[in-house]
Design brief:
about 200 residues, Rossmann fold, globular, two-stranded antiparallel sheet, seven-stranded mixed sheet
């Protein structure tokens, strides 16, 4: 998968997963606002939809290809493992930051590989595979930004998602915003959240 690695000479690494139509550079400024000293690995989605980069296929907006979702989640995880070896960082020091489509495949990683990475920041996710739950998320730190006014997400789905994450004992911090976007106030909260994570 196409990617960029920005080495800040830190053991800590942000893995950035863009939204639909984005690329591996899209969230670099977001990451640097959270912590300018953490190294950055930006990854480009493997799927092209009408010229737009995505991490998995969909049949239409809000109607997802679950087979592609699972396959591309597996592919992303293998890519992350390979790149962690290439750039010599440990997955225990990684925080995944995803927006929209990138946040969705981040949730796929949590569902399918809960022991891989402990820290996730998910901006404007949807609950793609809502028939599949989560297992044993104790010790996992998740910051999730969502909105009751997000026209691209069914908020009832998000309520279901939050309940399942809590039931599996994830350390969950929730920011309620105004739409399908990354808000400045959310970034301030993430910065504070991340500072606490590093001190654990």
């Amino acid at each position: 998968m196409e990617h960029v690695f920005i080495d800040k000479k830190s053991k800590n690494v942000f893995i950035l997963l863009h939204g639909t139509g984005g690329n591996e550079y899209d969230l670099v400024n977001v990451a640097e606002m959270i912590d300018k000293n953490t190294s950055i690995l930006g990854i480009r989605g493997n799927v092209n939809e009408g010229g737009m980069n995505r991490f998995f296929k969909r049949f239409a907006p809000g109607i997802y290809d679950l087979e592609s979702y699972k396959n591309e989640t597996n592919h992303l995880v293998e890519t992350i493992k390979e790149l962690s070896n290439k750039y010599n960082f440990k997955l225990e020091n990684v925080t995944v930051i995803g927006f929209s489509n990138g946040a969705n495949i981040g949730l796929g990683m949590i569902q399918e590989f809960p022991s891989l990475i402990n820290n996730y920041v998910l901006f404007s996710p949807d609950y793609i595979n809502s028939d599949k739950g989560f297992s044993n998320l104790e010790g996992m730190n998740i910051f999730l930004s969502t909105s009751r006014n997000d026209t691209m997400v069914d908020f009832e789905n998000i309520i279901k998602l939050l309940s399942k994450l809590k039931n599996e004992n994830a350390n969950l911090d929730i920011y309620y915003g105004l739409g399908h976007r990354i808000e400045h106030e959310a970034l301030i909260d993430v910065k504070n959240w991340y500072t606490k994570i590093l001190k654990k």
